[in-house]
Design brief:
- This protein is of the alpha/beta class.
- The chain is 49% helix and 12% strand.
- Helix 3 (55-80) packs antiparallel against helix 4 (94-103), helix 3 runs parallel beside helix 5 and helix 4 crosses helix 7.
C-alpha cells in the first residue's frame, strides 16, 4: 500500500454512485490544488441513453464503449505526463468491472471480462481515493434536480444495486489511502465549512481507511 498523500498529493480520485456529487467535488479539488482534471465523460457514450431506455439490450455495448474510452484516457495520461502537475479524476478504472457486474448477464459478463483481461489498461494507483456515499433517496433527488433527459429512466432498484456494489468494492479496497465521506447532507461543491473541513482531512490523511462524517450519526 502507498503512504498517505499529504500535501504533496499528485493523483486524487473521487468515486461514488450516480448523483452523489463526485464530478462537482472533483472540479472543486482540481481548482483548489491547481491540478489537471480528468472526467469520465459519460455523455460521450452513444449507447448510454439506449441503456437507460432498455437496460437489457443496451448494457454490453455501453460497457464496452466505456472500457475503450478508459483505455484511451489512460494512454493520454502516459503521453501527456499529467501527473507532473497533479491530477484529480472523477472515476477509477476498477469501477468499470463494478458497473459491468451490475448491468450484464452472466454470458455477457464473461465476454466483457475476457476483453477487459486482454485489453484493459493498467492505470496507476491513486495517492488518495475519496468515496462519496448517500442513500438512494438522496441520489434520486439529486438526479431529478440536475434534469438530464437520459437519466429520467433511472430507478431506485438500479441505484440500490450500484450502491451495494460500490460498498462491496470499497469494503475490500486497500490499494491506496481511502477517505469515505457521508455526502448525504453536506455541500462539497461550493466554498464553505463542509469543503474546508474535507480539505483538512485530504491534506493530512495517512495510510489506511478514514471517514468524514459531519453528522452526529452516519446515515445507512
Amino acid at each position: 500500500m502507498k503512504p498517505g498523500p499529504g500535501r504533496g498529493s499528485r493523483y486524487l480520485v473521487v468515486e461514488g454512485p450516480i448523483g452523489v456529487g463526485k464530478t462537482t467535488l472533483a472540479r472543486r479539488l482540481a481548482t483548489h490544488f491547481g491540478c489537471d482534471l480528468m472526467l469520465e465523460r459519460a455523455e460521450e457514450n452513444p449507447f448510454l441513453e439506449r441503456f437507460y431506455q432498455d437496460p437489457r439490450g443496451g448494457a454490453l455495448p455501453t460497457q464496452l464503449h466505456f472500457l475503450f474510452q478508459r483505455m484511451r484516457q489512460v494512454e493520454e495520461l502516459r503521453q501527456a505526463d499529467l501527473f507532473a502537475a497533479g491530477l484529480v479524476a472523477d472515476f477509477m478504472l476498477a469501477k468499470e468491472r463494478l458497473f459491468a457486474g451490475v448491468t450484464l448477464d452472466d454470458d455477457e459478463y464473461r465476454l466483457y471480462d475476457e476483453v477487459y483481461t486482454r485489453l484493459g489498461p493498467e492505470a496507476p494507483e491513486p495517492d488518495l481515493v475519496i468515496f462519496l456515499q448517500a442513500p438512494v433517496s438522496v441520489l434520486l433527488e439529486r438526479i431529478a434536480r440536475r434534469g438530464r433527459p437520459m437519466e429520467r429512466q433511472i430507478d431506485s432498484a438500479y441505484l440500490q444495486r450500484l450502491v451495494d456494489a460500490y460498498n462491496r468494492l470499497f469494503y475490500h479496497y486497500d490499494d491506496a489511502p481511502l477517505l469515505i465521506v457521508n455526502a448525504a447532507d453536506i455541500d462539497l461543491g461550493t466554498e464553505g465549512s463542509d469543503f474546508a473541513r474535507l480539505l483538512t482531512q485530504v491534506e493530512t490523511i495517512g495510510q489506511g481507511r478514514h471517514y468524514f462524517n459531519p453528522l452526529p450519526v452516519a446515515l445507512a
